[in-house]
Each structure stands twice: as structure tokens, then as C-alpha cells.
Amino acid sequence: MLVKVLHNGNCSKSKAVLEYLDENGVPFEIINIIEEPLSPLEIKTVLKKLNQSVFDIIRKNEKLYIEKFANQDLSEEEWIQILAENPSLIQRPILIKGSVAMLGRPIENVKYFIEK
């Protein structure tokens, strides 16, 4: 089954997952979330597949988050819109296989996800 990878080309963890998939002959499609940001609806779909809330996929160590959003009390809907407008704040990589998804870290989790 084809694995979709929500990817940021500047992320070493994202690159490592792509390398792992390639080395293990796993067919995958790259979705560069920086060049092609996800819409709010796409983010909601990914969250359902992850079975997580939007708060679980926010990169809280990003400079943008710390400077602009860290002290704000925002709703899930507001965060979804912020992530759509600022895709660098989304944890990555995210792997999607059919109706399920997972954060692609640590790399050991990717191996388990692929084999299931």
C-alpha cells in the first residue's frame, strides 16, 4: 500500500524517513507541506487518521510558535487555521496509510507502522 508522507524538505527527521522507506522498497508519495500547505479540512482529516488533537501536532519549539503563539489561548479551530497558514508549525513527518496515520518519529515507529 502506498504511504503518503507529509514532508518538510528542511527537516532531517523527514529526510531520514524518506530514506528509510526508499531503502526498504516501500512505495510512497511525498506531500511537501511547505510548498503545498494543507487546507483546514485536510488538517482535520489528518488529525482523524492520527486519532490526535491539533495540540499534539504543533511544533512548540519553533521560533514562530514561541514568539507569536506560545502565550495565546486558542481554540482547536483557530489552531487548525494557524497551521494551514504556517505549515512549518506542523510536526513532521506524518505518514498516512489508508485510514490511519502516525508521526514518523522515532524511526522505530515507522518500521512498525509499515509492517502492520
UniProtKB/TrEMBL annotation:
PROSITE patterns for the chain: ARSC
Gene3D superfamilies membership: Glutaredoxin
Domain of life the protein comes from: Bacteria
Protein family membership: Belongs to the ArsC family.
Name of protein: Arsenate reductase
Organism: Chryseobacterium taeanense
